[in-house]
Amino acid sequence: MAIQSFVEKNLPRFHAELDALLRIPSISARREHQADTRAAAEWLHDHARAIGLEASIHETKGHPIVLAEWRKAGPDAPTVLIYGHYDVQPVEPLELWTTPPFEPSIRDGRIYARGSVDDKGQLFLHLKAIEAHLAATGSLPVNVVLLMEGEEEVGSENLMPFVEANTERLKCDAVVISDTTMVAPGVPTIGASLRGLAYFEIHVDGPGHDLHSGSYGGAVINPATALARIIASFHDENWHARIPGFYDDVDPADDLRDQTRRVGFDENRFLEETGSPETGGEAGFNTLERIWVRPTVEVNGLLSGYTGEGSKTVLPAHAMAKVSCRLVPHQDPEKIQTLFIDYVRSVAPAGVRVDVRVLHGGKPWRAKIGGPLYDAAGRALEKAFGKKPVLAGEGGSIPIVPEFERVLGAPVLLMGFGLPGENAHAPDEWMSVENFEKGILASAFLLDALRKKA
Amino acid sequence: MAIQSFVEKNLPRFHAELDALLRIPSISARREHQADTRAAAEWLHDHARAIGLEASIHETKGHPIVLAEWRKAGPDAPTVLIYGHYDVQPVEPLELWTTPPFEPSIRDGRIYARGSVDDKGQLFLHLKAIEAHLAATGSLPVNVVLLMEGEEEVGSENLMPFVEANTERLKCDAVVISDTTMVAPGVPTIGASLRGLAYFEIHVDGPGHDLHSGSYGGAVINPATALARIIASFHDENWHARIPGFYDDVDPADDLRDQTRRVGFDENRFLEETGSPETGGEAGFNTLERIWVRPTVEVNGLLSGYTGEGSKTVLPAHAMAKVSCRLVPHQDPEKIQTLFIDYVRSVAPAGVRVDVRVLHGGKPWRAKIGGPLYDAAGRALEKAFGKKPVLAGEGGSIPIVPEFERVLGAPVLLMGFGLPGENAHAPDEWMSVENFEKGILASAFLLDALRKKA
Lengths: 454, 454
Prior knowledge:
The structure is a homodimer of 454-residue chains. Chain A is α+β, with helices and mostly antiparallel strands and 454 residues long. The first copy, chain A, has helices spanning 2-22, 34-50, 116-137, 159-165, 167-170, 223-232, 256-262, 267-274, 287-292, 333-347, 371-385, 400-408, 433-451, and strands at residues 54-58, 65-70, 79-85, 105-107, 110-112, 143-149, 174-177, 189-191, 193-194, 196-205, 211-212, 296-305, 314-315, 318-327, 353-362, 365-366, 390-392, 412-415, 430-432. Chains A and B meet through β11, α6, α9, β12 and β13 of A and β11, α6, α9, β12 and β13 of B.
């Protein structure tokens, strides 16, 4: 109990330290915040050293990667790699923040600040867990490598090249990531899945330039109408995707389906959170199934012709859509890309030219539940929260997760402490104070549990 | 032949005068050109006085209306009202102009300048025809009222109120408008029809704010996809509109259909002009029928979600389309508005809110071919061009044309001297030198022909 009591005694200082990290505007997407982003890396490097880790900064083509290591548990002890990111999303629109994004403010049990939950708070809690072990016992039960990057919000382009170039140094028995959410307050959650991604741009070209819709309308195919026909053909009346072969590799009896009924879905909270008039989607599946275990075809953007005020009578030369598919096991992004492109071509109306461009791809991921890592996580979370964790799917994509497994050969654990409605990429981002504090304990208990069998 | 020889002798001066008018940047849509727009009105007022007309400037809530009158032909002579507009379209993008828009330049038999063909050149040629009569004979064969407005490019909002308030003064036997095009060089053309307009904005609202397309995608209806479905439902596989009742008032045996086969359609020129890969539209109709006698449903603009560079994974809260119907006799804009709104509501997918707003409407028009006005126009155009004029439909809308007929009770003649490819609302607008010069003669001959029976 020495660790737990150290944590409890030092919470006010831990909050003050987190505030200091949150005050650094490390917006990786913005050139004018380049120095700030580096400052966050240096802050973490210095802090890791101060609590007794070996820390090092590694330059990349973009923002630096920080490693913090403790390898004195011995060759027989497992090695845990903890991944997190110190960069944050842009903060616009600023006027929608109740308090400024880089002036942390605690209200109603929430730490409001850009980066509080995504991901500085969730990364920093691991540092505090490590500090607690070292301060209370002088050592850690396992070897630890903290891998902290500054480009997660801009695509993590330099992360996997760094990992691949340092596989020996980063060799580990488990990867732990805290960058996801719990299903509800007080309900510790283990991430069971991530969807993959295949992102496209569709360009439809008709006339060589915008035409007068009176003088020419009716006699040439309208690219915007043609694009609408293509998009309308993506789903049948049951919102089931019509792209041939799209579901071929999807497991209809996915065991996460049962889990959607066990975690308890609160439809009212979901509607409040999304502001949608109602839930809706593929027939035959509940809301969580639609997010956790079913692939999607979603329009992310549309642009054509005149979109300003009033009535300009233009027949557009061009129409564009951004469309992305979320993928589930065992769909392969490259295969889906081919199926999608073939399908769009097959349904493209005559009289226009259609071009499909692939922008982005990422594999789906499914946790390999069971084994020492998941057993340890279950015990640690139960000890910290007083309740057994639930398994929950996640509709978003973290393409580096399957990559970590592929390159390092170690299982990944998603042990997130966010909460629904946390505004991760929006104004008034917050992290629950309770989850920050219990997260420190959960992380500390996890290090113990990974050493000791149940 | 005195008139014709006066015109021929004075052509260099006429061109110089037109250049002076074209140099005035009377862009009615732009507040910074308000004084320039008034300057064009004053220029016309002064010029009309100089050639022997009574001219007056009439203030409106917007740009002024100029009247120029000559009423000495006596009570038994017919009165002709000639309508034109002195305002011009904006000129952006400036970099696409070969020579600056307000520095007229003659190249390859074309007068390049903003407003050359739309409508300053076509308005000014009537002034020159009137001047030729007055200079050569000391009088005009008919009474003439020139009605010149400065708001045609911004919707002519103040025109009809002015006409309605001055019906006695504007009472006439014929209305002549030169603001349309000939079907080909050397082929004088009488406008046989105009399409009407019903312009809408469709707004589809789903979630209360943009959502993460991973975390929520699949479980709420995507407004952009819903909008695409609505638009895709506008036409069947033959590009025939599906809106119930849409064609109820359309005459399937329209006698303009035969005319489309008589004027000679040049598909290659059409494709070159539009830059379209091919013609296309409602099955069972040729290209000119599709433009002249068939109504349309066209998308004019689309906007939803993220439309910048790269792949933002947003599930949009909102999607918008601008959609307009071109109407043909005897479709009524208000009836079509009701049918359209009802139809959109009937096909709107569940799970989103759909709102249809009416932006603009205008009635279709069909020339009442025959009678003294059309007989006179036929003779005048044949005399000026050495060829009988053809009748041609026009796909665009000039909502004031049916309004003139309604308020003044006089037939309208569309005697246009533009040409295909004239770039009326685009960079490098031009008017044919030949048409400007022959247009002066045609107008002069028309005044004669309206007095004298064939």
